[in-house]
Automatic annotation (TrEMBL):
GO terms for biological process: carbohydrate metabolic process. One of its GO terms (molecular function) is deacetylase activity. This is ChbG/HpnK family deacetylase. The keyword Hydrolase applies.
Amino acid sequence: MPKRLIVTADDFGLSSQVNAAVERAHRDGILTAASLMVAAPAAAEAVDLARRLPRLRVGLHLALVECRPALPPSEVPDLVGPDGWFRRDTARFGAELFFSPRMRRQLAREVDAQFAAYAATGLPLDHVDAHQHFHLHPTVASLMIRVGRRHGMRSVRIPAEPAGIVRAVEPGSPRALPAITAPWTRLLGLRLRAAGCAVPDQVFGLSWTGAVTEERLVGLLDRLPAGTTEIYTHPALDGAYPGAAPGYRYRDELDALVSPRVIAAARRSGATPCGYGDLV
């Protein structure tokens, strides 16, 4: 089976620092795709940038936690806090979605609004994923599939990370989070395939979220498995902007994506650079 490689930057549009890093990592490094937060402060700037980068594959980063909604907060009052941002108590929020028809109706309107906002950009929809992988939640997954298919969604990330390869790259790497999410990941993959959506064979970045460094990237690319692999990252010039995650090594990730060692390892892997659209 041939190797194909998608390298994605999440949070496109969250800040000018992120947007500038996406441009550099794509022009000078191995980045092939970016996931757009349509309601983020620098989303319009990101869309203008994407139009100047025709080879950059752009998709929707469905954002339903720890960020601003696309709809006015008054239209999704049960989904936001006093500051008008989506709730940050993600576990409790997810549990309440199971039992509240009112919350689910608000969520459905917000999901539709984000897909519609993306469509309004005129950019091709290369893929869909979700901030904090919140589409692993069965309720969110159902809405994403139902609404997304109306908007032309054909490819979706599922965070299925082979723990063995991660530990081969870095013995002693944590495995708790992938182990916890694995059942939901398998369920999501089954549902997406049944809905006719393309998904990658494996995705890396879960164990090293916010710290996909040069050493880790080189080690991973030298062990790249067959099939289609996505590596998702969070590059930025720095972390000095609202919404930045504490402890994320934004600049290190940008430096890794443009590192000559990483570029050489990507070539050495024999993988064809691509986007999700190439899976369809």
